[in-house]
UniProtKB/TrEMBL annotation:
All copies of domain Carbohydrate kinase FGGY N-terminal, residue ranges: 8-247
Molecular function (Gene Ontology), one example: glycerol kinase activity
Kinase is among the record's keywords: yes
Region of interest (Disordered), residue spans: 463-487
Pfam families per the UniProt record, alphabetical: FGGY_C, FGGY_N
UniProt-listed InterPro entries: ATPase_NBD, Carb_kinase_FGGY, FGGY_C, FGGY_N, Rhamnulokinase
Gene Ontology biological process terms, A to Z: glycerol metabolic process; rhamnose catabolic process
Compositional bias (Polar residues): 478-487
Family indicated by similarity: Belongs to the FGGY kinase family.
Name the UniProt record assigns to this protein: Rhamnulokinase
Listed Gene3D superfamilies: 3.30.420.40
PANTHER family: L-RHAMNULOKINASE, SUGAR KINASE
Residues covered by the Carbohydrate kinase FGGY C-terminal domain: 256-447
Amino acid sequence: RARTVHAAIDIGASSGRVVAGVVDDGRVELHTVHRFANGAVRDGDRLRWDLSGLFAEVLVGLTRLGEAFADVTSIGVDTWAVDYGLLDTDGRLLAEPTAYRDDRTTPAVLAAVHERVSAADLYVVNGLQSLPFTTVYQLAAEQRGPLWPRVRHAVLLPDLIGYWLTGELRTEVTNASTTGLLDARTRTFPADLAARLDLPVDLFPPLVQPGEPLGALLPAVAAETGLPPGVTVVAVGSHDTASAVVGVPATEPAWAYVSSGTWSLVGLELDAPVLTPESRTANFTNEGGVDGRTRFLRNVGGLWLLSESLRDWAERGEPAELEALLDQAAALPAGGPTIDVDDDTFIAPGDMPARIREACRAAGQEVPASSAAVVRCVLESLAAAYARTLDQAERLTGRTVEVVHVVGGGSQNALLCQLAADATGRPVLAGPVEATALGNVMVQARTAGSLTGTLEEMRARTAEQLDLRRYDPVTDAAPSTTKEAGS
Ligand code: ADP
Ligand code: LRH
């Protein structure tokens, strides 16, 4: 099979990268050509993303990519979900996008949405976990804001980057599934839901499916980056978690994933959504996956709790080196205090260690004194949440989980992976770090014809090439019965 080269633009809440994916004879090799920091920035009383700045970094990355890989044929874009930019009728961005950690989605805003459509009614349509920053709530806040009369389109962030690269305005469907406005079964925007929320049904541009070509690079972009004419942007799982799940190197039938970065996305890949009251009560989400799959998962608090703590310590001039703190945390005894990492109090930026200590105090637990003790508390709490979530996922779906794949930046955290194995009682397979870029490239390569087959077939092929680290449970938390592999 022919060699093809693809570019993955993958931007997470904490960092972005442009990665070249070289696909040759069914093997995928990734080369990161550019990396850049990301983080929400305070702008008066709003918290925003500097999307224009991120796009400038994308262009730097594409320029480097073209220098190193002149035979690149396509580009795919993924970012974190739910956030969007607002365009006027001329396609101009009205403001840098508000970040999902902004405090505008107050309980009153959520209540106003639920007055129009109850939480239960929303769930049977959109299948989403209740999170205050889901797009539908952000839009409700936006409807009260000054820009709203000038808005023609809301455009999800990867789609906005795709628009700036090609001039084509679309809404990629996996990310559309995180807006709260998409039907989890039909994968369309139901007109009646939009009407009940007083939103135009065509607020989001027309849908596009992962694997479909979006368009050729605009001449100005080709000129600025030096990329050859004819390079196209191809829609991928533009929700980063959708691409991460494609990139999970699963070869076992009964696998679960933890996509571990700013958030931990913990769950299963299913053929169809689970929209039962039990699933809603357990706060499970049914996000859209590539190839019409369902990502049945929960957003569990993530390494945000750690990175935001590090930021606080660094600002205070205290030691804030991740690896050193992880070593110290690993030397502390197990069974210390734990917090509910899903508590909304941890969503906003700010003094994270103080909030963690307060949560321990409020729960009548020992208060972690040192920074290392705070780190240990976060990691033990995350591992406990993974275990709880996977047990719930088994109950809600009737499937079993025999192995847990941890992918993303957090797969490098050996202490977290070991604690996850111990808490879940199942082996953890860690890696790849760049599962999202891998999944992004895999979808493009299938469009180009250099990879073929189902997700399972593609995963099996890419898994052969990867060195995964295995962590076996060392406590007695392992299930006492041998379970049948799920289908
Ligand atoms: P996102 O896509 O949400 O920005 P990433 O998948 O890039 O997140 O993961 C970022 C996280 O990975 C960091 O917050 C950090 O906790 C973790 N991480 C990064 N490098 C290392 C490392 N060398 N060892 C342990 N953890 C790491
Ligand atoms: C992870 C992620 C997650 C969303 C959150 C906003 O990067 O996309 O899946 O819930 O960011």
